[in-house]
Structure formats: structure tokens, C-alpha cells
Write a structure and sequence with these properties.
alpha/beta; Rossmann fold; 10 strands; nucleotide-binding
Length: about 240
């Protein structure tokens, strides 16, 4: 199957297993031990669905997000995005798929401190080759949509935590991805700011697949479905 398949789920994990420290084909000393982060995980996520991933630290939530984004290749199993198995692609192929189809909201924002809010949002558009004027227009529009029209020239250090998170979400949406993954998107925000961010995530989830990893009950409450993980295993899949 090829990317842009519209007949199946936006995201599919099939019997995914991942070991950190696994050194297939390499020598590992007896003192080193692989840590199993995921154990035969199978999950489908549809377009227009907001999926919550719940579980304690170390349960495998972030590993799932990284696998969907093509930031890691699982030890075993398949991870498909719009019909293409990322595990069968080269590093370049996974990068190309991520840039085109997946937006990432990192837990600690990962904004470049020397760039303005607008330049941070426009950065992924540089990678896809959009002209400068079009990048600037797109970034300005997105920042306005997340309520930061008066902060476009501000540096991250001049923004509040909630404003930085909204910049991070605008950046993740800059390439109009089919899939959005967010790692603890409200973890460092106060209640009111977190509620605004959640409203934004549910709005963008109307026409794309959104996967949110969180410990926060309020965050998980906006999900259409919650998958609970323990020790890398799915123990509950609840709508």
C-alpha cells in the first residue's frame, strides 16, 4: 500500500514491540540489558478521532508517539501511516513522510530561543521548500488562529508557558498534517490555559487523527477514546 491511502485508518500499529538498548546484529556486554518499552501493541486511529494514551511514566506512551512520527523504528511489528508501513522505509523516507503527514507537539515545546514565534512556526515550511513570503503568511495566519496575532515577533523567552505551547501547536500544524501527535500538551500549564489548549486540539482533530499522551484527567476527557498502557502493554481500550 502507498501513502495517502484513504480506505483504512490514519494510523495502525500491529503487534509493535520495542526494546531500548536492543542491539540486533551488534555485540552487547553482559552488563547491558535491553528495556522493553512496548509489548505487542496493536492500535488503530481513524481520521477525525482524538485518541488519548494514558498510563504511568515508563508505560510506553511516548514510545508510541515517536514510532508514529517515524522518530524510531520498533524492534518488531508494523507502524502504518495512511497505509504505508514506516518500518519498511529508509531514514530519508520516514523523514519525508513525517514532514508531509505528521505534526509533533513536544512536551517541552522545543522552540528555538533565537527565533521569533513566527519564525518558529515557519521552520517546517523551510524544510518542505515553501517560498519565504508564503512561509511568513502561513505562520502569521496560524498564530492568529491560536490567538497570538499580537505575539508574532516575540521570542519564546518573552512568552508565557501557554503562549509557547500554542506556538508549538501552530508549528505542528504548519504543514497541514493528516496526523497530530502531542506529548503531555498541558503538563506545564495552569488550568485555564490548559483548557484553551485542549479546545484547540479538539478543534484541529475534526479533520485529522490526533494522538495525545497524558497523565492529566482533563486532557484525557476530551478524547473520543482512551487507551491505557501498563509496562508497555495495552490493558484497556475504552471509547
Amino acid at each position: 500500500m502507498t501513502v495517502d491511502d484513504e480506505t483504512g485508518p490514519a494510523v495502525r500499529l500491529e503487534d509493535v514491540r520495542h526494546e531500548y538498548g536492543s542491539t540486533t546484529g551488534r555485540f552487547r556486554s553482559r552488563s547491558e540489558q535491553a528495556v522493553t518499552a512496548l509489548r505487542d501493541v496493536s492500535i488503530d486511529v481513524e481520521r477525525g478521532e482524538v485518541l488519548g494514551l494514558e498510563g504511568p511514566s515508563g508505560s510506553g506512551k511516548s514510545t508510541i508517539l515517536h514510532a508514529i512520527a517515524g522518530l524510531l523504528v520498533p524492534t518488531a511489528g508494523a507502524v502504518s501511516v495512511l497505509g504505508t508501513d514506516l518500518t519498511e522505509l529508509s531514514d530519508r523516507g520516514r523523514t519525508r513522510t513525517r514532514r508531509r503527514h505528521v505534526g509533533i507537539v513536544f512536551q517541552r515545546f522545543h522552540l528555538l530561543q533565537s527565533l521569533s514565534a513566527r519564525a518558529n512556526v515557519a521552520l517546517p515550511l523551510v524544510q518542505v521548500g515553501l517560498p519565504k513570503s508564503a512561509r511568513r503568511e502561513r505562520a502569521t495566519t496560524l498564530l492568529s488562529e491560536v490567538g497570538l496575532e499580537d505575539r508574532v515577533t516575540h521570542l519564546p523567552g518573552e512568552l508565557s508557558g501557554g503562549e509557547r505551547q500554542r506556538v508549538a501547536i501552530a508549528r505542528a500544524l504548519s504543514t497541514d498534517p493528516d496526523i497530530l501527535v502531542a506529548d503531555e500538551p498541558t503538563g506545564e500549564l495552569d488550568t485555564d490555559t490548559g483548557a484553551n489548549v485542549l479546545e484547540l486540539l479538539t478543534d484541529v482533530g475534526r479533520d485529522r487523527a490526533v494522538i495525545v499522551a497524558s497523565h492529566d484527567a482533563a486532557t484525557l476527557a476530551v478524547a473520543d477514546r482512551v487507551v491505557t498502557l501498563r509496562d508497555g502493554t495495552v490493558i484497556e481500550d475504552e471509547r
